[in-house]
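Forgive a beginner's question, but might I ask you for the amino acids of a protein and the tokens describing how it folds?
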Amino acid sequence: MSGSTIIFYMLAALTLVSGVMAVSTRQIFRAAVFVLFSLIGVAGLYFWMQYEFIAAVQIVVYVGGITVLIIFSIFLTQQAGEKMLMPKIGRKVFSALAAFCGFALIMLQLYQYTFASTTNLPIEPSVANIGTQMMGIKESGYSLPFEVVSILLLAALIGCIVIAMKPKPQTT
């Protein structure tokens, strides 16, 4: 087994174990820290594949942006050491069903997609070419994905607020 393969398996294990720990822990601050490590593992995989720009964006946007947003919302709205309530069995079943449906949809798309080799030369990584592709609206542009990421950040902000809010005490 080569060193590159060992590094891949270590990064994959970091990402998967941190992801599982993030959804299985009952302490909300620990869940946020596990999400941080999972996102760092994904960035490490991008570095391993030599996609340095995407890895840097992963670190800046997700590790730096979303995770810090989650941690700040926890500190501002709730005690960091409090344990989250155990979810009801209906929510657990719905979550498992949603995860399975998402996995099935991804596998179906991968199975149906025909990967074709190309003879196109790669684009030279200059600042002008990167800017043209990032802000382009044509076929090779990435303007739409940037808009989708902005909606994802908004959804993460709303999700952080919802997760971090304390439930109101019920009076009888």
About this structure: Residues 123-167 form one domain. The helical segments are 3-24, 28-48, 52-77, 89-112, 127-135, 143-164.
